[in-house]
Amino acid sequence: MKTAIIFSSTHGTTEKAAQLLREHLKGDVDVIDLKKCPNQSLTDYNSVILGSSIYAGSVKSRLKQFIKQNQNELGTKKIGLFLCCMYEGDKATKQFEMAYPDELRSQSVANGLFGGEFIMSNLNFIERKLIKKIDGVTTDVFKMNAQEIENFADQFNV
Fold first, then answer.
1. pLDDT digits over 22-34, tens only?
2. CA-to-CA distance for 10 and 123, rounded, in angstroms?
3. Second-level CATH architecture of 2-116+145-157
4. Nearest CA among 14, 137, 29 for reference residue 82
């Protein structure tokens, strides 16, 4: 089985999550950044895992566009979906539901909320100010959930 992990990331957290996930998946796995390969073909893949970060309250537009352009073909694949976000519980679940269309969520064999991180040195001035105002964060925060990534892989590998 050949799997594509297709992701969109702003500051690299989702890429880290995708690389960690790759280590736990069976078979041949390609990790594809939509910033570098926006028109990735799905023809060679049996399964597709889509991942994104939440940026300014929304999933990345590159991923939204990719899903829209490949909606029919995605319907023929084994699907997994994950999100990197700082929220937990109901807030994270709501972000996940807003990030992915109903059709993909109902088709997905594995869903994951992998946590996130704020690395202040990677953020611009405006981003730092917004994060401080919204979340009260002024220092680096690491909330990546390695166990959730492993659990996702276990579900997907079945």
1. 999 999 999 999 9
2. 10
3. 3-Layer(aba) Sandwich (3.40)
4. 14
